[in-house]
Amino acid sequence: MKKLINDPSRVVEESVEGFGLAHAELVTVHRDPWYVVRADAPVQGKVGLVSGGGSGHEPLHAGFVGRGMLTAAVPGAMFTSPTPDAIAPATLAANGGRGVLHIVKNYTGDVLNFETAAELAEADDVQVRAVIVNDDVAVEDSLYTAGRRGVAGTVAVEKIAGAAAERGDDLDGVTAIAERVIANVRSMGVALRAGIVPHAGVPGFDLTEEEIEIGIGIHGEPGRRRVPMAPADAITEQLTNPVLDDLGISGGEQVLLFVNGMGGTPASELYVVYRRARQLLEERGATVARSLVGNYVTSLEMQGASVTVLRLDDELTQLWDAPVHTAALRW
Amino acid sequence: MKKLINDPSRVVEESVEGFGLAHAELVTVHRDPWYVVRADAPVQGKVGLVSGGGSGHEPLHAGFVGRGMLTAAVPGAMFTSPTPDAIAPATLAANGGRGVLHIVKNYTGDVLNFETAAELAEADDVQVRAVIVNDDVAVEDSLYTAGRRGVAGTVAVEKIAGAAAERGDDLDGVTAIAERVIANVRSMGVALRAGIVPHAGVPGFDLTEEEIEIGIGIHGEPGRRRVPMAPADAITEQLTNPVLDDLGISGGEQVLLFVNGMGGTPASELYVVYRRARQLLEERGATVARSLVGNYVTSLEMQGASVTVLRLDDELTQLWDAPVHTAALRW
Q1: What average pLDDT is seen over chain B?
Q2: Residue of A30, A57, A61, A102 marked active site
Q3: Which of A116, A259, B236, B261 could cross-link B276 (Cys pair, CB 3.0–4.6 Å)?
Q4: Which numeric CATH code is attached to B185-311?
């Protein structure tokens, strides 16, 4: 294993420390327990948004802390849920007096730990709600999940719910907006080559030079099937059509098309995937009204990509367009 | 070789086409010859900025086309200089009546082709100047270069010169600002694993599981030396100290610290490198006033990173901070 790290047991802390130094105008890093919080938190009179999950998916979640998106992010160990004793204080730090929404990707450990943390925070008189992101159409249930997994659609949930909190919606309102995004967003991914978890030191799974995994999870969990390597357009069809079918996208609809890199795939290839996914949407008569292309929900240096489609309405579009100032998303 | 492409001979065009579709509010893609130009170009009364180079370094350069940065970018084939018959029309398209600055990375083919294109554009009565970026301290001369190579420091040149053009500086002024950035920026990189050029189909060079290349070029050209794999802090010292020595950074100075990913290295590792590079600067008494961390000048899916330091003064800091709206850099 060759990685730009010092010690597998310290990579998360050193990385978060570097992140805090690089973005000190945006965030404050809290140690022991480790979490990342807006430098100006708590923002009085605004609903707080807290997310988190295993590390290794950067820039998710710390890269989305800032004005118009998350109030705090809690990084777990690599591919490991953050613990309630970190989530709870992050929740208190994010509370500006109007309650806190937990945005949780649907993995069993994450769901349980956020639930426990919510109870701890409520014992401190902070009102907490939670939404569970489960956008991955590839599989029902999986290695770490009952139901569908939460993957790249999380970015849309965090952005749009963050904009709703920023405009002053109350906790019910922000929760309802987050639920509406979740109801209208779907994703599916492919892996060409696995990433390497530092403390494991070997690839998370093996693929030969002739095969790829369609429907991969962001921890390398198995997807729908292994198939022979194919041209990008054919692979993109295998990702995009199940997403569009599941969403029931039809003519005349407006969507956000998000092509996400898994960490080790060049940007040039992501745009090749975007090109074909967009053609497929247009062939169905849908309009791609907004786009996002890049590495936002990664799996270390995994080679691969995912396609996410969000059905837009006027309000979701406005909230997507609202100003955001985070390390990884800014406009 | 497993890549998300359809045909090695069409990957650049399909990728640029996807890029143009995803960012249609920012750029227009011109075909045959292929170049990317601001959607609102030419901007009357402003100096135009044109850069370009071999593809495979995305988001460089097309990702930096937009308000406050480049007016046009000319992508060559993978790792291959763009041709004068593409650079010249891009130059004409970028001309708003006050001349055009070519920002050229120091590779023999790029320099020659931009020179020829400048002659063609001048025959059409467009005044053209050129600056040559040569920030890589690793080696004098190399496989494709007389003198030092142009690498990640190019981002700072394009951002700051772009801001000077945006505020209305004339061609002499924008050129002088670009030269001042070039005089004050230095870089050095490391590779852990090579990228794969699509039409080659095999890694550009071989490194064993126990060795890394210090001073690597962005096309995989040899650097200073191959050394055994080491902890990130030790590698970061081998990149940062030569940069700081060459720049002659001393106590009391303000710098921009830019840790650039080569394409296949996780963001978490880039922040581990950033953390140590920042410590080294602070140990010399310098202040890191601005930071940039991410994949900006890549080498396909190469694993590795580079450290760039720019000595700042008040004007360069203001120009760095000035608004920018491109696909890859926005604030």
Answers
A1: 97
A2: A57
A3: B236
A4: 3.30.1180.20
